[in-house]
């Protein structure tokens, strides 16, 4: 099957997410592809219109709507059955900081090079005390603009759905306090850290409820980094007390709307995978290969969790198209049988991934992901 012959069909991804057997072919899954990679693939400028995160300045609604058609067209052309649309109260918080309130955005992010890349600040943060928490002009619940969801639904090709992509807010708590201050506070003044986390969660749950009511929504993606390559960032006790109850609320909310729940976390989360299952999460992304063995995870949790991603970002960056093709083939052989799998990057597709390597990823996913009748000899 050539890429141009593959028609979008969210039901194949839904079948994988809910572990309801093998779809007609293994779906592709990438929640974030860099603008430069999308532009190279399409041969024209393409921008993520919802580049909203804890440290990124949100685009204006007008800019988002202007870029949305090309963004949707990319996800369809590349062979995905969905288009991801990011949202979150972090956009309102960053907008307030951009206006100069509470010290400005330099307290929550660093910029690299000429400012083209940002990442969370380790030391700074704008919530240093109870006074800061009380004085900050928090947005009113339910005031996050979400018109992009209605616009995306109108643009969807037949068969595609939107995946609403929002954060669980633990990452926001780390950044808004400053990571060092947050982790110190967990020992010295945990009440402040927990109060900020719960404030953000209460704002975000309203936004999640509103976003997942829009037409065209096929699933909800809960973005929350819990770990690094060798273990958790916070203790299992803290997560069980203050994070996983929020996950359960989100699961109950989206399941009541008959939507699958996908959870993202980098790193090694094996210590709390039973908790993740108990929260009602349907699928885990991205099974970072240097942190967890996806074959072992499939063996232990494949009846309870779908697994998404797993193609190493290092390989996508420094490997050859032939090596990427071989890695995708191995995943189709070792993980895809029985269903509950979607192939993609083991994190995201950043701007330093060569275009030829990204093309190799989606081409191999299409080639090896199509099920052959009568066995798996074609994968050998």
Domain count, please report it. Answer: 1
* Alpha carbon gyration radius: 20 Å
What's the β-strand tally? 11
Instruction: Please give the oligomerization state of what you see.
Output: single chain
Give start-end ranges of low-pLDDT stretches. Answer: none
First CA to last CA: what distance? 18 Å
Mean pLDDT level: 91
* Count of alpha/pi helices: 16
Question: How would you characterize this protein structure?
Answer:
By secondary structure, the chain is an alpha/beta fold. The protein has one domain (about 5-370): Alpha-Beta Barrel (TIM Barrel), CATH 3.20.20.210. About 45% of the residues lie in helices and about 15% in strands. The protein has 16 helices and eleven strands. The chain has helices at about 10-15, 35-40, 60-75, 90-100, 130-135, 145-155, 170-175, 180-190, 190-210, 235-240, 245-255, 275-280, 295-300, 315-320, 320-335, 355-370; strands spanning about 80-85, 110, 115-120, 160-165, 215-225, 225-230, 230, 260-265, 285, 305-310, 340-345. The protein has a seven-stranded parallel β-sheet, with helices on both faces. Helix 7 crosses helix 8, helix 8 (about 180-190) crosses helix 9 (about 190-210) and helix 9 runs parallel beside helix 11 (about 245-255). The chain starts with 9 loop residues before the first helix and ends in an 11-residue tail after the last helix. The mean pLDDT is about 90.
